[in-house]
Specification:
The chain is of the alpha+beta class. The chain folds into 4 domains: 81 residues, no CATH class; 126 residues, no CATH class; 39 residues, no CATH class; 153 residues, Trna Endonuclease, Chain: A, domain 1 (3-Layer(aba) Sandwich). It contains 11 helices and 19 strands. Helix 5 packs across helix 7. The longest helix has 18 residues. It is globular. The two termini are 41 Å apart.
Length: 425
């Protein structure tokens, strides 16, 4: 019988009965997604979720982690940059479900609809020793044998379903089947998909093949994009211990950063160029390297920098270290303005600071993720306008021009700034 522990991001379940084998396997596969501490009694443990959403399976234990934002919005973020992947009304009936069951249901329907249009086939080269000649003679093999043997080594092209596109679809379906919260009907249909693709090889989730889209395989594109998401999120499996363990986890920090980058590129197209994770240096000797989340360029010159944070402190304020890091970015790039972009949830207030002695303005701007798509896009529109307006008349900027900014940062030492350059974002 499966025991299921249900959490939300940053929530905690206390005094969960776990064996030492379960705790050991959970620590191996969950990594930073779960904080595990001893509970108040023997064999009891406290499990605290962090900034991941998804599912962890360890033997007959399942830990389900729901995102703090609506599922509809999480799927909208997943679809960013994925052409022809739109979850639309497919999540109806799954608004209150866990992430993985909802994703499995959508993937099952998407692959079924795709394969109904025909299983994709392509010619693959085969080498085989045959009695009758087929294709062309494999001359290197003939020369290795010292003459023309019988049967004959042949090399020929054969129409096959064992191609990268089908491998992705089949492997993603197989990855979803074992999780206990997947609806039984969905699980049956996923097994049917695996059966339709019988004879197709598996894909290593750590080496997902790049697939070039053509007019022949274009109808596979939505299913392929979602299969990639599933495989990249479910790559941890462990069979070294006494329990079989696997995970399907979405790192919300990375997802939010990717979403903001893709959407800002669209909103600022033709006005500012958005580059992500571009290497720069804090010092003249180029020994202290940094990679700001976003650098905004105009006519080839950097004009703004931003750090993307999915979660601020519990009271909605940026951490001092976040300010120090952003200040280091501004100094390294010679900029007088930087932004902390964060998931605002239902908060509408923005805070920030101006560094002493005419230093850079460090502004905090939220992106709302609790409303519908319209709310999210309005928030992105507003952010794009704020970024652009910050470039107007910057030389005349005075502290009184920014009454919404929080108190001035004081006592920012060189040691703190240098230290923040090593702090992961």
């Amino acid at each position: 019988m499966t025991t299921t522990v249900r959490l939300r991001e940053w929530s905690e379940a206390t005094d969960v009965e776990l064996s030492f084998d379960q705790v050991d396997a959970l620590r191996r596969v969950a990594g930073s997604a779960i904080e595990i501490r001893p509970g108040s009694r023997r064999d009891a443990w406290n499990l605290k979720a962090t900034s991941h959403a998804g599912a962890i399976r360890v033997g007959d234990l399942a830990v389900m982690i729901r995102p703090k934002i609506p599922l509809e919005n999480l799927f909208y973020m997943l679809s960013a940059g994925q052409s022809n992947l739109d979850f639309g009304t497919s999540l109806i009936g799954y608004e209150e479900a866990e992430l993985l069951p909802a994703l499995a249901a959508f993937y099952e329907r998407l692959t079924a609809d795709t394969l109904k249009r025909g299983v994709l086939k392509a010619y693959r080269e085969h080498d085989e020793v045959l009695v009758a000649l087929r294709g062309r003679i494999d001359m290197p093999a003939v020369l290795r044998t010292g003459g023309m043997p019988a049967p004959v080594p042949c090399r020929f092209d054969e129409l096959s379903t064992d191609i990268p596109e089908n491998r992705l679809l089949r492997t993603a379906a197989m990855a979803l089947i074992p999780y206990p919260d997947v609806d039984p009907a969905v699980r049956r249909n996923l097994r049917r998909t695996v059966g339709v693709l019988d004879g197709v090889s598996d894909v290593d989730p750590r080496a997902i093949p790049a697939i070039t889209l053509t007019r022949l395989n274009r109808y596979y594109e939505p299913a392929l994009r979602l299969a990639e998401v599933i495989l990249r999120s479910g790559g941890v499996r462990d069979r070294a211990g006494t329990l079989e363990a696997s995970t399907f986890l979405i790192d919300m920090n990375r997802l939010f950063e990717r979403f903001v980058t893709i959407r800002l590129r669209r909103h600022l197209a033709g006005r500012l160029e958005v580059r992500d994770q571009e290497q720069t240096y804090l010092d003249v000797g180029k020994k202290i390297s940094m990679r700001p989340d976003l650098i905004f360029y105009r006519r080839g010159e950097p004009v703004l920098v931003a750090d993307v944070k999915y979660k601020l402190t519990d009271n909605g304020q940026a951490r001092n270290a976040d300010y120090y890091q952003l200040l280091a970015y501004c100094e390294a790039l010679g900029l007088d303005a930087g932004f902390l972009i964060y998931s605002g949830e239902d908060r509408t207030d923005a805070a920030g600071a101006r560094v002493v002695d005419g230093g850079p303005i460090l502004q905090v701007e939220p992106i709302q993720l609790v409303g519908g798509r319209g709310t999210i896009e309005q928030s992105l529109d507003r952010l794009a306008d704020v970024l652009l307006s910050s470039l107007i008349g910057r030389h005349a900027r005075q502290p009184q021009d920014h009454p919404h900014l929080a108190p001035i940062i004081r006592n920012v030492s060189v040691v703190e700034v240098l230290g923040c350059a090593k702090t992961p974002s």
